[in-house]
Write a structure and sequence with these properties.
alpha/beta; Rossmann fold; L-2-Hydroxyisocaproate Dehydrogenase, Chain A, domain 2; six-stranded parallel β-sheet; three-stranded antiparallel β-sheet; about 45% helix; binds nicotinamide-adenine-dinucleotide; L-lactate_DH_AS
Length: about 300
């Protein structure tokens, strides 16, 4: 499986490339970046580690060389400033993003290729990609709340001294201010997480708020998120490459699940070789379902402002 990372010279793209290199599941990783020196340097640095990590082809390239990719990951974009919301970034990133989509299209792409959007605001840009690419909407996915969900699970496990991989707790909706925690189905080792001592309603409120502000916390301390987002990008790519049918909170165009339409956001989604293969409407608490609908409304309001 060949993966091209557009913006791969940057922090998020290069960290994702390293996570995919460590896992050794995809066979080819192409780094494509506006800054060609940076792309060459990152590809070379990764290639130097190949002997210790995995037998893969790793190189820098252009759109022509990218056209036979199975997955295009888009991490190109301008970074969020510490006091900037993801939506403030919107109009700064939309122009740049539209050009990238048009470059992918004009270079040509395989009919079964998947376009995987990471750049922010991710739900809005996923919607733009789904609208402009001649691909079934299941083949256009966004990272959505994958990173928020990973942060949520890892922070809870750290606080309550539990195993992060056994803590299962989803965040759905927008990758942004209107995201929502799903406590109704949260488990640890298959049992209700909310019954673990220390996981009371005060803690639940506090840990969700901390998770929501985690992106800004990392930006203010080290300039931008990298490793965790790289890990969640790799997790999604591996679900596609291995046709895992994992239920993941990726973003994709909604077509009726929870009554949502014409908006990209995260609902429980089966991810496999076809991309976002199926949305599954699992039972939520009424207040969770209301919050999901409110998140969709907030995103639709933002979409109506694109370009204005
Ligand atoms: N969805 C998420 O959960 C999530 C998490 C973290 C960051 N992000 C987003 O990822 C994006 C990248 O963040 P970063 O920290 O890697 O930024 P960065 O500045 O380190 O990297 C961006 C890269 O994009 C390249 N680039 C710019 N315009 C380009 C173009 N037209 N074509 C090809 N490459 C181009 C730049 O040269 C740079 O190397 C941002 O939009 C950020 O908000 C998303």
């Amino acid at each position: 499986m060949k993966v091209t990372i557009i913006g791969g010279g940057g922090r998020v793209g290069s960290n994702a490339a390293f996570c995919m290199q460590c896992a050794g599941i995809v066979s080819e990783i192409q780094i494509l970046d506006h800054n060609t020196d940076l792309a060459d340097g990152e590809a070379l640095d990764l290639l130097h580690g190949a002997a210790s990590l995995a037998d893969q082809r790793i190189y820098s390239g252009d759109y022509d060389r990218a056209k036979d990719s199975d997955i295009f990951i888009i991490t190109a974009g301008l970074r969020r400033k510490p006091d900037e919301t993801r939506l403030d970034l919107m109009n700064r990133n939309v122009g740049l993003f539209s050009q990238i989509i048009s470059d992918i299209k004009s270079a040509g792409m395989k009919r079964e290729a998947i376009v995987f959007v990471v750049s922010n605001p991710v739900d809005i840009l996923t919607h733009l990609a789904a609208s402009f690419l001649d691909l079934p909407s299941s083949q256009v996915i966004g990272l959505g709340t994958m990173l928020d969900t990973a942060r949520f699970r890892s922070l809870i496990a750290n606080d309550l001294d539990l195993a992060p991989t056994q803590v299962r707790a989803l965040i759905l909706g927008e990758h942004g201010d209107s995201m929502l925690p799903v406590w109704s189905s949260a488990t640890v080792g298959g049992l209700p997480l909310t019954e673990v001592p220390g996981c009371d309603s005060n803690y639940q409120r506090q840990i969700f708020e901390r998770t929501k502000k985690s992106g800004a916390e990392v930006i203010s301390r080290k300039g931008g998120a990298g490793w965790a987002v790289g890990a969640t990008i790799a997790e999604t790519v591996h679900a596609i490459a291995l046709d895992r049918k994992q239920l993941l909170p990726v973003s994709s165009l909604q077509n009726g699940c929870y009554g949502l339409k014409d908006v990209c956001l995260s609902v429980p989604t089966v991810v496999g070789r076809g991309g976002a293969e199926k949305h599954i409407q699992l039972k939520l608490w009424p207040k969770e379902e209301q919050a999901l609908k409110a998140s969709a409304k907030a995103l639709q309001a933002m979409l109506s402002k694109v370009g204005s």
